[in-house]
Design brief:
Elements lengths: L2 E7 L12 H9 L2 E7 L12 E2 L9 E2 L1 H11 L8 E10 L2 H8 L3 E5 L5 E2 L1 H6 L3 E4 L9 H12 L9 H5 L26 H4 L3 H19 L1 H5 L20
Parallel strand pairs: 1-2, 1-6, 4-7, 5-6, 5-8
Antiparallel strand pairs: 3-4
Helix pairs in contact: 3-5
């Protein structure tokens, strides 16, 4: 079955957004993956369809109600839907290439895009939501974070990218950042191409690329080399974020 993404949001008009363009959009039109949105407010309370309320114990902001969000989830997907249920939140597991490949290997995901100060903890537990973070910074809502996650997934769906090697040689795929890239012209503003790339020796080129990838990783992301996991933390425990991503 194609990879299926179901989005719960207060702003369904934001989708597909950039996911409807370029390779992701072409894959969507070809049916290589599917995207559906569900309006959380359809399950709001009262005449005004309220979806939030004051935080218990006081404090700033508003909290998305558990009963409203649970009703939206139940209406969007059946209880036996095998896809993981994700909530975009910096308290969760850091999105990395390992997690992306886990998701692509499945049938897709239900993705909840929160707003306001946060989501009532009880619905996270009661509907088995897995929190996923794209970084330690604040967004206005989870929609942009969901697009980042989906873009990372969709490009790895067979048939979306032109060459399979394009995905296997990128940063994080082998626990390293990607090697530098060059193309024509051969000389530009006094800068030439590395001799190894002009040699025609495939073994020498492969070694140069590996050496460069290791050098750049040591300089920019030594934590990847220190990690016991080949993907720098794949499958590790959830890492709480310092800031909320709504």
């Amino acid at each position: 079955m194609p990879f299926r993404a179901s989005i719960l949001t207060l702003y369904p008009e934001m989708f597909p957004g950039p996911l409807g363009a370029s390779l992701a959009g072409e894959g969507l039109r070809k049916g290589l993956w599917s995207l559906e949105t569900h309006q959380i407010r359809d399950h709001g309370i009262g005449r005004h369809r309220n979806v939030d309320d004051n935080p218990a114990g006081g404090g700033a902001g508003m909290v998305l109600r558990c009963d409203v969000l649970a009703a939206a989830i139940d209406a969007a997907v059946p209880a036996d839907d095998p896809r993981p249920r994700l909530l975009m939140s910096p308290r969760g597991r850091r999105l990395d290439q390992g997690l992306v490949r886990e998701l692509v290997a499945g049938e897709g995901a239900l993705i909840v895009c929160g707003r306001f100060e946060g989501v009532d903890e009880r619905v996270i537990e009661g509907r088995n939501l897995t929190e996923i973070s794209i970084g330690d910074y604040i967004l206005s809502g989870g929609e942009m974070a969901a697009m980042v996650l989906l873009d990372a997934c969709v490009r790895l769906i067979p048939g979306v990218m032109g060459k399979e090697a394009s995905g296997s040689e990128e940063s994080f795929e082998n626990g390293l950042l990607e090697y530098p890239h060059y193309t024509r012209p051969r000389d530009w503003e006094g800068r030439g191409l590395p001799e190894a790339l002009l040699s025609g020796d495939h073994a020498r080129i492969a070694k140069w690329r590996r050496d460069e990838a290791e050098r750049i990783t040591r300089e920019r992301r030594p934590d990847l080399l220190a990690s016991p996991s080949p993907l720098g933390g794949e499958g590790g425990p959830a890492k709480p974020g310092r800031m909320r991503e709504e």
